[in-house]
Design brief:
The chain is of the alpha/beta class and 322 residues long. It is built from eleven helices and eight strands. It is elongated, with a radius of gyration of 25 Å. The structure holds uridine-5'-diphosphate and magnesium ion. The site of uridine-5'-diphosphate has 17 residues, from strand 1 and helix 3.
């Protein structure tokens, strides 16, 4: 019997977690040929998610949980979950039922019958989401496909089922600043894309703000490409050549025709333009140096406070309120 691990990052999901498990169990019960196991990762929630998780684990034998010492972010939670998997197939999904478990049979078929290593999802329609967010997400996918050597179809999501082999490859990438969408694509293997209509989150609320989406986009590009660095170098070269021509023209004018331009506006434009370009280039450079700095520290990606993976160590000492 094949085993399937479900990795579920949870942040402030006290309202919806139980509902998620109940709904997912319905699908699991319809697939008696597979043994499912939940790996719930509590990413330092501020609400009672941990207690809900612990109670669920008492009720259902196949629920394992890991609880972080603070909020480390969804990427860290996914990584922790993946590290604790052992099943033949691994699913990564959200706890808010925006990733319908009803797709499991289709995903299993893609891997077993069609021979894919991964069956990933992309969103079809962006109902209930603002036009602005849609525009930026389109721009993000377009830009990152052009600039990086990883390719992602528009609307690609983290929700996917992968083979053990693929998960092991993903775990070999131990970088601190993780960008899973890129990593999933970077490791290669054959991916089948299936699309589905997204629904609004029913319980709890989304934790993503516009600023974090922007940061996410910058991360996505800088983690997988040095194109912005090359862009600054090319820009510098172009400006250098243009100014060279300008200098020659000015010299000829002054030496041979005796024209001296007062050029207040020209000077001001040049100073401001070059100042802007320099600032921007330093900014891009700084982005990468910052990344090197964070990677060089080599800090752990997450810190576990409680877990029922090793009941022996954990015992019942973790009865404190979260
Ligand atoms: N999540 C997490 N850590 C965070 C933020 C979110 O583990 O810091 C989890 C969250 O519990 C959910 C998933 O990541 O299971 C997606 O989050 P959300 O639904 O808020 O994002 P969206 O669906 O809007 O992309
Ligand atoms: Mg969601």
């Amino acid at each position: 019997m094949k085993t399937i691990d479900l990795v579920v990052p949870c942040y402030n999901e006290e309202e919806g977690l139980e509902h998620f498990v109940n709904e997912t169990n319905k699908v699991i019960d319809s697939l008696p040929d597979y043994k499912f196991r939940y790996i719930l990762v509590n990413d330092g929630s501020r609400d009672k998610t941990y207690l809900v998780m612990k109670n669920l684990a008492k009720r259902f034998k196949n629920i394992k949980y890991i609880s972080f010492s603070r909020n480390f972010g969804k990427e860290a939670a996914m990584y922790a979950g993946l590290q604790h998997t052992g099943g033949d197939y691994v699913v990564v999904m959200d706890a808010d039922l925006q990733h319908p478990p009803a797709l499991f049979p289709q995903m299993i078929d893609a891997i077993e019958k069609e021979g894919y290593d991964c069956c990933a999802t992309r969103r079809e329609a962006r109902e209930g989401e603002s036009a602005l967010r849609g525009f930026f997400s389109k721009m993000f996918f377009g830009l990152s496909n052009k600039l990086t050597d990883v390719s992602m179809p528009y609307g690609a999501m983290d929700y996917r089922m992968m083979t053990r082999q693929m998960v092991d490859s993903i775990l070999e990438l131990g970088e601190v600043q993780r960008f899973s969408k890129g990593i999933f694509s970077w490791v290669g293997f054959n991916t089948k894309w299936i699309s589905f209509k997204t629904v609004d989150r029913q319980l709890g609320k989304t934790t993503w703000k516009f600023s974090s989406l922007f940061k996410y986009a910058i991360d996505g590009i800088t983690c997988f490409s040095v194109a912005p660095l090359r862009f600054t170098a090319v820009m510098g070269a172009i400006i250098f050549f243009i100014s060279l021509i300008y200098i020659i023209i000015t010299l000829i004018q002054t030496l041979f025709f005796g024209i001296t331009t007062p050029g207040y506006v020209t000077t001001l434009c040049a100073v401001l333009f070059l100042g802007g370009i320099t600032e921007m280039s330093i900014g891009i450079l700084g982005e990468y140096i910052g990344r090197i700095y964070m990677e060089a520290k080599d800090r752990p990606i997450y810190i576990v406070k409680h877990s029922n993976f090793d009941e022996e160590i954990d015992r019942e000492k973790d009865t404190d309120e979260e």
